[in-house]
Write a structure and sequence with these properties.
single chain; alpha+beta; Arc Repressor Mutant, subunit A; 3 domains; nine-stranded mixed β-sheet; three-stranded antiparallel β-sheet; 15 helices; 38% helix; elongated
Length: 477
Amino acid sequence: MKEYEIVMGLEVHVELATNSKLFCSCSAKFGADANEHVCPACAGMPGMLPIANKRAVELGIAASIVTNSEITPVISFDKKNYFYPDLSCGYQITQLYAPICRNGRVEIETSKGKKDITLKQIHIEEDAGKLVHSHGVSLVDYNRCSVPLVEIVSNPDFRSAEEVLAYLEKLRALLSFAGVSDCKMQEGSMRCDVNLSVREKGTTAFGVRTEMKNMNSFSAIERAIEYEAQRHIDALETGCEELVQETRRWDDNAGKSFSMRNKENATDYRYFPDCDIMPIVVTDEWIEKVRATLPESAHDKYARMTGELSISEVDAKIITKSKRLCDIFDALMAHGLPVKDVVTWIVTELLSLDIGENKSYDDIEIDCDKLASLISMTNKKVINRTVAKKILALVYTDNVDPETYVKENNLGMVSDTGAIEAIIAQLIAENPNSVKEYKEGNAKVFTFFVGKTMKQTAGKADPTVVREILARMLDEA
């Protein structure tokens, strides 16, 4: 039985975090009604000249810096010609001859250790529109036309789905922490095309390459790689089908890929320089200015958390996996809360909430001032932990104010030890058999009495005080 090796290269499209589009002033924000953010320029009307978005170029520089790439001193834009309904003018403005950068490197870590993934180039380009297929008709939404992207093109360095996912995770962290993009796959601001071939182990020639599109989650990418690799191996082993260079669409529901069209070559696109956009000089001073504005990276934040703040590696890894969680962490720390409490409330309590289907940690939206207030009230024993957890869910879903909610619903902690002693005395009197079992060494009975006491106080008593009083009164009974 022959052994085969998977060879993959990735093209990752990342939407840049600009307010306006790449070559016009239309909004680039996600979520608008169909064709709401469209003007004659991004709709491809004749005579409308493009004007390059300086902020998009700066974000391209930032992407180049965090991927250890060689920035091109003078960049230019080119026209990539193809006809498709989502491209109204018949060409896409992109970069071929002088992209923003080349020869980058991203270090990943898998179960087999560390590995460098090398990048061929990163180029800035405009997005195309979106086709909507429904009820037998196809509609076009041009909102996404001219939204600025960077396309990050790797060399064929990947040999497993694990490496691909590790790279995408690392890329998402690098770019989101640098403020280049929010990298939300479910909103299309990070998309990945996988170029895959299979060859016999020990050989160096590349096999027939196919490109897979339409993958909007890490799980879909992993399944697509496994399916397509096996399809190639089966074709090579059995001759059941002829492999051809083509673009394929991944159907996650069917768990299969389907042929879309033969794979184009660069000559098919008839690239030529866009004479309407002047070349842009990227000076060393401009690069250093962008570098100076870059926020703390995930790697540096992790080092600070585990070193300076003595946070466990496990907790630090969870928090630094998401820029949003890091932002929440920093916001809570700014309130002067103890580090241990901040970490516990994020990792244990906040992440236990139902954040919604197809949502990630980066989608968590919560008022950090109110969360800090809730933590402070718990630390000061204004409310107990049980009540605090219930209020946390309401802060997240309904943005309630913790202090107001506690007052209006009389949820303040019961601190009257005399009242707690009276409740426990009554429970002891009503449950003599349970007291006897406790005396005989049945520890579960203690939990029974704690639960009954908390129920009598509507969950508002301090559990620590309840346990202390209960232990004393059971011993004295």
